[in-house]
């Protein structure tokens, strides 16, 4: 778990604004944390919630103690007055917001303070967004809303106008890599996580995760299939890939891993071996640079980006992946 001081090293402006609002007791009733993935939005939300409910915090400091009952319960996701809302499937739906509103009509279980945090706020349906707008228009004095998004342009202007916007700037891969190495992540793995724009919470989730380890293997197996005209990539997609990658975010992660491999192949073509991320794939990259031209590699990267865009816009995962594999198949 990061502290404000650690977060300030990578997000000085956003951190300073939040720390000042806490110390001066001038917290807004609604915040919008926006910026790319892996920039600390979730950690900032967690720190803010911990400090808001902390039982032992120094009034002159923005840091939560991290060890009281409330801090520990928030870290474990079990505090009754901190509500996390995430997309249900492809979107945040109206009934999720209505349930939240109903919960907030009750007296707090331990105090009248409440916080709700919406992840991927840009994924709200129109009905959900309108319902949330009514909630924001009638704020309770002791209720704080934190909305997080990577795509601020897709959030309704009427919601934006009722939130204090906190921008989290993109980090470069070197900064992320250094963070992960300092957390004890092996250098080769840290390099991949940094290229994927993971934050520390993602790293903690995936570093020892058997699903992710298997996902990496399947990605490389698919590459071997589509690179070899005698292999059947379409069949492998249905027999293996779709059995492992089932949710939308899993497909997106799989595409990101494919992108890393093809971007490394481009780096090899351009003589930029120093930029290669998947070091363990060096032999395979050497092999395929002679059979796949730079122009063909660029075309593959384009198809991967298009597929990721389709999935983000709710094109059916299977249809999007079928089209991709047919385009990648040599």
Structure, briefly:
By secondary structure, this protein is of the alpha/beta class. The chain has 2 domains: 4-167, 3-Layer(aba) Sandwich (Rossmann fold); 209-328, Zinc Finger, Delta Prime, domain 3 (Up-down Bundle), CATH 1.20.272. It has helices spanning 4-10, 12-23, 41-53, 69-75, 94-104, 126-137, 157-160, 173-182, 187-195, 200-206, 210-227, 233-244, 248-269, 282-288, 294-312, 317-328; strands at residues 30-34, 82-85, 114-118, 143-149, 164-167.
Keywords:
transferase, 2 domains, single chain, five-stranded parallel sheet, alpha/beta, Rossmann fold, Zinc Finger, Delta Prime, domain 3, 5 strands, 330 residues, globular
Could you characterize the architecture of this molecule?
- The protein has 330 residues and is an alpha/beta fold.
- The protein has 2 domains: 4-167, P-loop containing nucleotide triphosphate hydrolases (Rossmann fold); 209-328, Up-down Bundle (Zinc Finger, Delta Prime, domain 3), CATH 1.20.272.
- It has helices at 4-10, 12-23, 41-53, 69-75, 94-104, 126-137, 157-160, 173-182, 187-195, 200-206, 210-227, 233-244, 248-269, 282-288, 294-312, 317-328, and strands spanning 30-34, 82-85, 114-118, 143-149, 164-167.
- It has a 5-stranded parallel beta sheet with strand order 2-3-4-1-5, with helices on both faces.
- Helix 6 links the parallel strand 3 (114-118) and strand 4 (143-149).
Helix share, percent: 55-70%
Using DSSP, what is the number of strands? 5
* Tally of helical runs: 16
- Please tell me the overall pLDDT: 90
**CATH topology name of the largest domain:** Rossmann fold
Q: What does the main sheet amount to? A: 5 strands, parallel
Q: Strand order, biggest sheet?
A: 2-3-4-1-5
Please mark out the parts with pLDDT under 50 across 5 or more consecutive residues, or reply none: none
End-to-end Cα distance, whole Å, is 45 Å
Portion in beta strands: 5-15%
| CATH homologous superfamily placement of the largest domain | P-loop containing nucleotide triphosphate hydrolases
Q: Quick one: CATH class of the largest domain? A: Alpha Beta
- The multimeric state of the shown protein is single chain
Q: Looking at the structure, what is the overall shape?
A: globular
């Amino acid at each position: 778990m990061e502290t404000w001081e650690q977060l300030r090293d990578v997000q000085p402006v956003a951190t300073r604004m939040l720390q000042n609002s806490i110390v001066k007791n001038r917290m807004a009733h609604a915040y919008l944390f926006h910026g790319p993935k892996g920039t600390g939005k979730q950690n900032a939300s967690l720190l803010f919630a911990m400090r808001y409910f902390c039982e032992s915090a120094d009034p002159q400091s923005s840091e939560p103690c991290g060890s009281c009952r409330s801090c520990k319960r928030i870290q474990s996701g079990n505090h009754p007055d901190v509500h996390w809302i995430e997309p249900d499937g492809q979107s945040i739906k109206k009934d999720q917001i209505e349930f939240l509103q109903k919960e907030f009509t009750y007296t707090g279980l331990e105090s009248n303070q409440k916080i709700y945090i919406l992840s991927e706020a840009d994924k709200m349906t129109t009905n959900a967004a309108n319902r949330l707008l009514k909630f924001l228009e009638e704020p309770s004095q002791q209720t704080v809303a934190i909305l997080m998004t990577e795509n601020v342009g897709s959030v309704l202007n009427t919601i934006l106008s009722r939130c204090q916007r906190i921008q989290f700037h993109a980090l470069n891969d070197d900064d992320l890599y250094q963070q992960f190495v300092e957390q004890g992540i092996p250098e080769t793995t840290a390099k991949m996580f940094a290229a994927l724009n993971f934050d520390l919470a993602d790293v903690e989730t995936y570093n020892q995760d058997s699903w992710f380890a298997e996902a990496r293997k399947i990605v490389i197996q698919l590459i071997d299939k589509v690179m070899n005209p005698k292999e059947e990539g379409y069949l492998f997609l249905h027999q293996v890939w779709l059995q492992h990658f089932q949710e939308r975010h899993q497909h997106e992660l799989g595409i990101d891993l494919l992108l890393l491999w093809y971007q490394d192949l481009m780096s090899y073509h351009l003589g930029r071996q120093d930029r290669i991320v998947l070091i363990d794939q060096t032999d395979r990259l050497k092999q395929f640079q002679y059979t796949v031209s730079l122009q063909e590699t660029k075309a593959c990267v384009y198809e991967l980006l298009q597929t990721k865009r389709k999935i983000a816009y709710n094109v059916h995962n299977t249809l999007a992946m079928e089209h991709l594999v047919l385009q990648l198949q040599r």
